[in-house]
Amino acid sequence: MRGLRRLMMVGAALLLTIPSARADFEIDIFSGATLIFQSIDNVAEDDNPVANQIGLSAGALADLNSALAGAGLTLQFTNLSATSNAGSGDPFAGLTVNGQVRGSGSITVDVSASDYNNPISPDKVVNSSASETFTSAQGSTGVFTSYYNPNNNQAGRVTATGFLSFAATPGLLVSSPMGIPTGPIPLFLNGTTNPFALENVTTLNLVGDLATQIGFSGTTGVVGRLVPEPTSIALLLFGGSFMAIRLRRATKLA
Fold first, then answer.
1. Which residues pair with 251 in a beta bridge?
2. pLDDT digits (tens, 9 = 90+) for 138-160
3. Are 79 and 98 in contact (CB under 8 A)?
4. Which residues partner with 142 through β-bridges?
5. Domain coordinates of the chain in residue numbers?
6. Which end of the chain has the lower number of beta carbons within 10 A, N or C?
């Protein structure tokens, strides 16, 4: 009996040392309005064991591409990852995505995370930045949009920034055009409460074949407005760069 009790105590201690899986950070892949694939941080289709870093390597990428084929799409992802700093203690909030897809067709990558408690200021600045590289992709386009979800619903698409539009540069085999903004970037919010959720949506339209590729990355960032706005924006840009560095490191480790 004493041995059984000791075994139960050891088992309970082991359970307490296992980090809890996060289910509030995910990547959703849509074809039109239909969800065809989902990767949840440390829960499903995530090959990166580090919390707040989703990385799809060989196994999960194969499942994603199988789901695309099952949906009748001639598209293949060769890379896909995302990072969130929710719960990190950073003075800013950040959500990033990075990936590469090839083939022909349209696809939407929706990255969302909840439970952000920083910045604590009720007055916030939400920025949205992205880049896309087109290879053998004449006629292909992309759009990136960031969302601030005040109800902490990670997939709510509530308050949108302006969007950034990209198009392959005519006559160039490889091009990385500047995104054309439409609408407010950055977005200034007043009287917000915590916690909140962030979301960014990348919609890609590839025209061509398997030689056609789009590499994409995007960052949604939030800072408080306790300091003058120019300084806030500088901090936001720093935070976005910091999150991008994290994402590149996570991609290398995945």
1. none
2. 999 999 999 999 999 887 899 99
3. yes
4. 166, 204
5. 24-253
6. N
